[in-house]
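re: ur question from yesterday

yeah so i grabbed the chain u mentioned. its 79 aa long if i counted rite. heres the sequnce exactly as i have it in my notes:
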Amino acid sequence: MIQTLEDMIRRFCAYGLEFKDADGCTHYWCTLKSALELAYKTSIHASTGKTPAMLEKGWNPKLSVDNLKKDLVDIHPAA
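ran it thru and got these structure tokens back, copy pasting raw so excuse formatting
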């Protein structure tokens, strides 16, 4: 886990302490810590076949993309 998080942070730090997104907005890499943690905790790991959140808490956090998928099915059942 520590190696994975280290790799994720290193990729952001490679651009310096701040970077610009596609819209030209400046961000500091440390502001992405929560997003990196969520990405890690909700990713299925090959060794366990489960997410760290599921193993730690017994449930996966709801993501906005999950709500989006539900809304799409409600709008158009073939989605």
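noticed a couple things. The chain has one domain: 2-75. also DSSP finds four helices and two strands in the chain.
anyway ttyl
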